[in-house]
Amino acid sequence: MTADNGTGTGARWTVLGVPIDSVAAPAGGPVFGTEAAPAVLRAMGLVRRLGADDVGDLDVRIVDPDRDPVSGLVGWPSLRPVTIALRQAVADLVEAGARPLLLGGCCALLPGAVAGARDVIGRLGLAYADGHIDVYDNRTSPTGEAADMPVAALLGHGWPGWLDLLGALPVVAGTDVLVLGARDEQEAEDIGSLPQHLGITVLGPSELPSGDQALELLAPQQFWLHLDLDVLDEDAFPATDSLMPGGLELAELADLLRPLGRSERVIGASIGCYNPSKDDSGTYGRALTDLLVDVLVP
Fold first, then answer.
1. In this structure, are residues 191 and 144 in contact, taking their beta carbons and an 8 Å threshold?
2. pTM, two decimal places
3. Is residue 2 part of a domain?
4. How many domains does the chain have?
5. Taking a C-beta distance cutoff of 8 angstroms, is the pair 14, 99 a contact?
6. Please, which residues have CB within 8 angstroms of residue 296's CB and are 6 or more apart in sequence?
7. What is the pLDDT of residues 215-262, one digit of tens each?
8. Which of 79, 83, 91, 184 is surrounded by the most beta carbons within 10 Å?
9. Cβ(256)–Cβ(180) below 8 Å
10. Is 82 within the bounds of a domain?
11. Does some domain include residue 144?
12. For residue 78, what are the domain limits?
């Protein structure tokens, strides 16, 4: 189905908070890790500076840090209502002509979100700026965290109980996925030729295209834009949980994402893995806010 709802033609951003962390807090415990990110970014004026609407936070949480022995996932079955709620919320926003901006939380939000957009518009691409390719599954992930495997889930690989929540599979074709900035050597060794087998285009930091070229690689369909802050170098952005050298500087990331974030073809966007507990001064939250305003506001 093709959307004719205003999205992709200058629709306003609509902020939705997704306060989750796939490391998983003990049930009933205090706000944990990346769960705090939506509230902190709002407090820094992100919504106002974007000129966005704000529909609040989803009432969701991933809990129980033990790896489930059946599914192989940390936080299962609490991941189930998270995914269901995300799919419905994003579908409702896109159907209403809004352009969702999801403030995570972690990358476990992605499968439900992209499935919701797909439900409305049909085929779409994925621009995935991340230090990882995230195609582990429930068996191969070294941690069992859902944030290890969102791209795999979108491509139809993983725990059937999770995949069943996404509708028709794959949600996104491998040939419509563009991963920008992946550089985790251990992950690359673990997954071997799987990205090539899946048809994913993976471009590491040393081979990144310009933002305009990245946009052309996603042509002609509409696409979802996802940013995991670990695409940045560990010194450029230490307020995230997966720190690696060799990543992008903030200015490089802005140059890469600006044509994507300002494109009329971007159906929605999501931000993952900002951890305010590693940012006592707020320095990196303010830098992230500045980056998002630069990238998303024409």
1. no
2. 0.96
3. no
4. 1
5. yes
6. 13, 50, 101, 261, 262, 269
7. 999 989 999 999 999 999 999 999 999 999 999 999 999 999 999 999
8. 79
9. yes
10. yes
11. yes
12. 14-296
